[in-house]
From TrEMBL:
It comes from the Bacteria. InterPro entries: ABC3_permease_C, MacB_PCD, Macrolide_Exporter_MacB. It comes from Flavobacterium sediminilitoris. This is ABC transporter permease. Residues 296-408 form the ABC3 transporter permease C-terminal domain. PANTHER family: ABC TRANSPORTER PERMEASE YTRF, MEMBRANE COMPONENT OF TRANSPORTER-RELATED. Belongs to the ABC-4 integral membrane protein family.
Length: 416
């Protein structure tokens, strides 16, 4: 054990001497390892941060939540031209499914529409996300009320001119005033503010409720009807807990096919998108991003490995005489082998640590510059260190073996 500690100490000394005596050559050779470790750890850290943020944004939602809509959230085997001919879901279908499908906990009819401007007296907040829905939506999407309330079933059915607004909308329109009971203007109509949401912050998909307003879907249907091209309807369904999701989807499919009079053998002209399937799709994309990151970084790591090997071959040549003397004094081949191998690993780890330090600096800088937390996890740091050790081991093995096999007499004579 003491022998290996001595070897490690001497190897560290030789590695530091190489850095001091041949600064430019050593730094240029280590640059490949630094760039390689930086590339792979930066990609992994960015992807892990994105994955964590997505999971946090979806953590409050039931992953069995279903979006019944004419579009697919993921890849589809149905040709695009055929999908474009699918009809929108309707309020009548929502009403029929709510009454006929078993195992439904909550079901909501929603309209996806373009952003609008909202006004209060002389103040305007631009590009606000409008979320028309039925009253059950608050039990499906994790909407948290700061003050006031969400609209009830009676207001939802009648399309009452009431509205619940996000925290940034409330601040932009009312400042420090209490918004409850105030009338704001949207779509050229006056709506009474009945609730304000808790601040949510930025989300991965840029759909924060802080810049959104919620109003009864029938208020908009009464204004525009059901055939307006700026409105995309969807039925959101939250099944009861513990239900077999595949059986539930089968019943839902059968009921809607019956309502639409789809003949046997004809394809469904709608999509049942389960939120868990969307998260699987995201996981697949993240896996592909990781693979691309590894592929790009492989070449940098390869260059770094050649750089370390170059340093070690030069080091062996410069210390040939010393190797001969060590062998003449009784040093075994194993001692020489480990001496150069440890030196290669130490040099590689130095390059890897510089690369990870640069990743950390970038993570701190970007987290401060944008509203997104970049995380350099302990797992990725250990991975980076392990990669650096592996590169040093692979790059240094051939020079170390060549050094250990030198004939002591020839080695001493070479240095004379």
């Amino acid at each position: 054990m003491l022998l290996y500690l001595r070897l490690l100490k001497e190897s560290l000394s030789f590695a530091l001497n190489a850095l001091r005596n041949n600064k430019l050559r050593t730094l240029l050779s280590l640059l490949g390892v630094t760039i390689g470790i930086f590339s792979i750890i930066a990609v992994l850290a960015a992807v892990d941060s994105m994955d964590k943020k997505i999971k946090e944004d979806l953590s409050d939602m039931d992953l069995n939540t279903i979006y019944l809509i004419r579009f697919s959230f993921g890849p589809s085997d149905i040709p695009r031209w055929k999908r474009q001919q699918f009809p929108d879901v309707t309020y009548e279908e929502y009403d029929y499914l709510r009454r006929s499908v078993k195992g439904v906990d909550k079901m909501s009819f929603n309209l996806f529409t373009r952003n609008e401007n909202v006004k209060y007296e002389d103040k305007t907040v631009n590009s606000i996300r409008v979320k028309p829905s039925t009253n059950e939506f608050i039990d499906i999407e994790p909407i948290k009320i700061e003050s006031g309330r969400y609209f009830n079933e009676s207001e939802s059915n009648s399309g009452a001119p009431v509205i619940t607004i996000g925290s940034e909308v409330a601040t932009g329109l009312f400042g420090n005033m209490d918004p409850i009971g105030k009338k704001i203007r949207l779509y050229g109509q006056k709506l009474t503010v009945i609730g304000v949401l808790k601040k949510q912050g930025e989300t991965t998909f840029g759909d924060s409720n802080d810049v959104a307003v919620f109003l009864p879907v029938n208020f908009l249907r009464r204004m525009y009807g059901d055939n307006n091209k700026t409105l995309t309807p969807a039925i959101l369904i939250k099944p009861e807990k513990g239900i077999d999701i595949d059986e539930f989807k089968a019943e839902l499919t059968q009921k809607l096919r019956t309502f639409r009079s789809i003949k046997p053998g004809e394809i469904n002209n709608f999509f049942i998108n389960v939120l868990s399937g969307f998260t699987d799709f995201i996981d697949n994309i993240i896996g592909q991003m990781n693979a691309v990151g590894w592929g790009i970084s492989f070449f940098s790591l390869l260059v770094g490995g050649f750089g370390i090997a170059n340093i070690m071959f030069v080091s062996v040549k410069e210390r040939t005489n010393l190797i001969g003397i060590q062998k003449a004094l009784g040093a075994k081949n194993k001692f020489i082998l480990f001496q150069f191998l440890f030196e290669a690993i130490i040099l590689s780890v130095i390059g890897g640590l510089v690369g990870m330090f640069l990743v950390w600096l970038c993570a701190v800088g970007l987290s401060a510059a944008v509203d997104f937390e970049f995380i350099l996890s302990a797992k990725n740091m250990l991975l980076g260190t392990g990669l650096a050790i592996f590169i040093g081991l692979v790059s240094g093995i051939v020079p170390a073996i060549s050094a250990s096999k030198l004939d002591p007499v020839e080695a001493i004579r070479t240095g004379m």
